[in-house]
Structures are given as structure tokens and as C-alpha cells.
Amino acid sequence: MKRTILSIAMMAVATAMMAQANVYFTKEISAESLQKVYEALGGPAIGRVAVKISTGESSNSNQLRPALIQAFVNGVDGTLVECNTTYSGSRSTTANHRNQIRQRGYTVAGGFKYELDLMDSDGADSAAGELELPMSADNMNGVTPHFPNAVVGAHMANYDFMINLAHFKGHQMGGFGGVLKNQSIGMSARRGKALIHSAGRNTVSEQWMRYAGDQDGFLESMAEVANAIHQYFHQEGKNIIYIDVMNNISVDCDCNGRPASPQMKDVGILASTDPVALDQACLDFVNLPSTAGDNHQPLLNRIRQQHGTHIIEHAEKIGLGSPSYTLVNLDEADAIVPLTAPERLRYNVFTVDGQSVLGNAKSLDGLAKGLYIVNGKKQYIK
Fold it and tell me: Residue 139 in contact with residue 132, Cβ under 8 Å?
């Protein structure tokens, strides 16, 4: 089945065998557009509504600003939610994190209806602040998880409806961060974060980097925890939806207090009920050709260096969602138009030692015989 789009600038798409989800898109980045994509997803948020954001490491970071999200969050009667970080920084303790929240304006005094809920604040390194969600091959398409329980912020149990409101950008460790990262690392308590970073080898938050180095295991663990949370919110009486905002797209995460300046222009807001389709759609925008003043290559390099697309592959493998989607452009009323393969496929090619050979190329013509990394996978050119 071919991925299809409404008529927008020759967007890259791929074939897949699974059913396609709708990914809704608008290029306008505003509170009104957040409401527009939310409404496009269907039914209203019911019950106690959580809106998961990143509060960002500093005022210099590129987290979603209150001015952008406040009207939308208040309009859905939502409570902003976050968890403490496991690395030592400005948000690793509840007291320090609350101070940063006040500085950023994610507060009632800043105009929000409710105070932000730190979901692990009852005990950031104790059972009081944790909720364990079981993971097993039985609920992951037969794939054995890296560890048996996702450890998330305890207050997550207080909510009926989750809006995963992510800022899409690069990431120093994951390659990129979208809704999958916002849901896994972002909703995990400190011990849960240590488990993800170590692919199940470490539970001590202060030693979160002790067993780091298994990059694929780290990415797979993020996908597995995101899946556990997705399944939790698909119990009767609960629900979850996903929104990615593609603005201020640095190669660095919002956990970086001094991120590199964005070289890629803002894209817009995308939303879906399928988190895999949604993050894949954002990646497809990143894979579009660079133009003057809109350089995608640094982010592409970051994603390739960290094997970032593997989180998509594993998320599909365990049944979290599908990278196949239909992009619905809310800015236009055109019929959906399938694109042919020559129009949609682009190649980013590196040597096995990391040297860029082709970027956003239409073909592999002209490559010398040998082994290359093509779109993140090894390929031998004859």
C-alpha cells in the first residue's frame, strides 16, 4: 500500500503493507492551528486530561512556549504534565524542576488553568513516585522486551485522556525526538529513564549512563515503553492522541540548555492517533531537499549518526503503529493524490566510516562499487 499525501511540495513517502493512519498537517504554527489539528482527530478529550510537554532545560532551549500552547491547553481543560530528569541538571529534583517551571511560565500565574503536574513528584526515586506498566512478548507481537516493566510517573494513573504534545527536533542520543521520545523518556520516572538508557541493565538513576552504549537497545527500549503507555491509554474509558510541532528544529534536544541554532526552517504542526506514522511523517519532511536558508543536512546527519530511525522500525515491529500514512493537508481542500516512486524517493548516502556522499539525491547513479549506508541501512552497490 502506498503512502499518499494531499498536494504539498512533492513530499517523500514510502510503501508499506500495514493499514494507513491519517496524519493531519497545517503549516501555520499557532494556538488556533493546535486546535485545528486536535479537532481533525475526532472526538473530544473526555475526563481528566493530561497534556505532556517538555519544560526544557533552560530558557535558551527550544521547548514549546506558553504563548503557543496556553490557549489550546486551557481550551481542552488540560493539565500540563512532566517528569523529573535523570541526568543532573536544572530539573533533576522536584524542587529545582518547580523553580524552572515558574521561570518558564507553565503556571497558573502564567495563565494556565491548572498548575503543571510533575507526575513522579511523590518520590522521584521511590515507589511512591512510580507506576509500573507490564511489558511482555504477549503484548508486543511476540517480541521480548528489554525489561519487564515500564516505570512511569505515578500520577499518570490520575488521567483519563493523554495529549502527547511534542516538539519535534534533533537529539544528541536518539537522533531525533518526537512523540515517541516524549512518551517514553518523557513520561518515565527517573528509575524508568535509567532502564531505557541502559536497555534494562541499570535501575539507579544517578548511574543512568553506566551501561549506555547499546544504541539500538536504547532506541528499542524507548519504543517499548511508548508502546506500554499507548496500550495503557487504550483501556476502556481512556484515550491518547499525538501532536508534533515542527518549529525551532535544532539538531539538539530541549534537554540541551545551549542548543545549536536551527538551520532547518519551521514546517508546521502534525497530528495523528498513530505515533509511529506521526514521527515518520515528520522524518519525511526532514528528508525533503534543502534549499537556500533551509538546510536539512545537519539534522539528517545527526539522525544517521545515532541510527535514529531504528525507533520507528522497532515500534512497527512490536505493533505500536505503522510508518505508512496518508498526510491530510488541512490548509488545502484538494483530493488525495498518490505520488509515483520516482517523485517521492530520496537518498542520503554515507560511507561506512561516516563521510557524506549524497544528500537528498534522486538516484544512486554514479556511486562507485562498494558498501554504503543508504537511508540508514547498509547497502552494497555493484
Answer: no
On whether the CB atoms of residues 24 and 328 are closer than 8 A, the answer is yes
Interatomic CA distance for residues 322 and 37, integer angstroms: 20
Cα separation of 99 and 146, whole Å? 35
Q: In this predicted model, what pLDDT tens digit does every residue of 124-158 receive, in sequence order? A: 566 788 999 999 999 999 999 999 999 999 999 99
Q: What is the DSSP letter of 291?
A: B
Residue type, 372: Y
User: Which of 116, 147, 151 lies closest to 214 in space, CA to CA?
Assistant: 147
* Cα–Cα distance for residue pair 139/38, rounded to 1 Å: 28
CA distance 258 to 256: 5
Write out pLDDT tens, residues 209-241. Answer: 666 678 999 999 999 999 999 999 999 889 999
Does the pTM exceed 0.70? yes
- The DSSP bridge pattern shows strands 356-361 and 347-351 to be antiparallel
Task: Please state the φ and ψ torsions of residue 233, each to the nearest 5 degrees.
Answer: -85, 5
User: Which residue in 108, 50, 107, 106 sits closest to 81, CA to CA?
Assistant: 50
